[in-house]
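lol forgot to send this yesterday, sorry. struct tokens for the thing we talked abt
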């Protein structure tokens, strides 16, 4: 049966990786919209919190030692930082949104990456944040308010219908809904996931990619990311996109393995090596995949 721990671990072995469960260190991102980086670290140190810089994140820190949860102190409520995984901070860093740009965040709630985009733009330009599920919008709005993000417009909208906005964007972030991975969900293997659920997610992601490309300006950038390790949701989607649209995959200079160009015996476009794949046992992060797409 195409499901269960052994099935998926054997798939990873076929891709050349022996994946083991690893302990992921808790991390956060300093929010420079509300406080200077050094000032926050000094405040946390004075509370007995020991932190260290994440070498591959601009504003990311590991929480090395703390007597209390960092989600339950005044500094958190004041929006001085956002509790965010090290790998999940990477897509916005690759997108590198600039002041005065028009940027789309397709699947925005709870707002970690949305607020990061706003931070990169220093609250200038416009961020359009779409969220399909109405019940998730309050969390998105609350986080944006807490983080001091004032250049964001939130829409209750399925990103597949983004063309109804009648806008063309300089950059798009598509942190796509995905099947997840066992590092962030300890019971991942037992949640009735099988190869068919993976393929269904991949179809949704292709629909979202199509919608994103339709609202992107020529020469614009889409950063596509998932927290999945499955090639159907990652490299195979990139191959599909290269086959059907005029795009290039640009090189990403950051940690992680190159994208796979041989998936279960299927040879893929060499450009897919420009993507990055985060195997948890190598990067000590959650499983992740990220691609930088330029529309031609």
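and heres what i got for the seq, position by position
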């Amino acid at each position: 049966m195409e499901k269960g721990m052994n099935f998926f671990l054997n798939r990873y072995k076929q891709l050349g990786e022996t994946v083991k469960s690893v302990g992921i260190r808790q991390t956060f991102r300093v929010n420079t919209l509300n406080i200077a980086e050094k000032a926050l670290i000094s405040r946390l140190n004075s509370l007995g919190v020991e932190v260290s810089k994440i070498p591959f994140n601009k504003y990311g820190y590991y929480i090395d030692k703390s007597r209390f949860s960092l989600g339950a102190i005044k500094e958190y409520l004041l929006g001085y930082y956002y509790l965010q995984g090290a790998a999940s901070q990477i897509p916005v860093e690759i997108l590198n949104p600039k002041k005065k740009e028009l940027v789309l965040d397709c699947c925005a709630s709870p707002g970690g990456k949305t607020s990061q985009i706003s931070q990169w733009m220093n609250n200038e330009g416009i961020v359009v944040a779409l969220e399909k599920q109405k019940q998730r919008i309050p969390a998105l709005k609350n986080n944006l308010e807490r983080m001091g993000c004032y250049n964001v417009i939130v829409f209750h909208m399925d990103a597949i219908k983004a063309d109804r906005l009648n806008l063309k964007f300089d950059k798009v972030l598509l942190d796509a809904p995905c099947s997840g991975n066992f590092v962030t969900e300890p019971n991942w293997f037992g949640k009735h996931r099988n190869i068919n659920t993976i393929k269904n997610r991949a179809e949704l992601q292709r629909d979202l990619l199509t919608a994103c490309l339709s609202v992107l300006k020529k020469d614009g950038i889409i950063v596509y990311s998932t927290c999945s390790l499955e090639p159907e949701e990652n490299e195979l989607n990139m191959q599909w996109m290269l086959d059907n649209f005029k795009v290039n995959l640009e090189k990403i200079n950051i940690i992680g393995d190159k994208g796979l160009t041989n998936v279960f015996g299927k040879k893929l476009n060499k450009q897919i090596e420009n993507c990055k794949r985060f195997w948890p046992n190598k990067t000590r992060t959650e499983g992740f995949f990220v691609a930088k797409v330029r529309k031609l």
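The chain is about 30% helix and 25% strand. anyway ping me if u want another try
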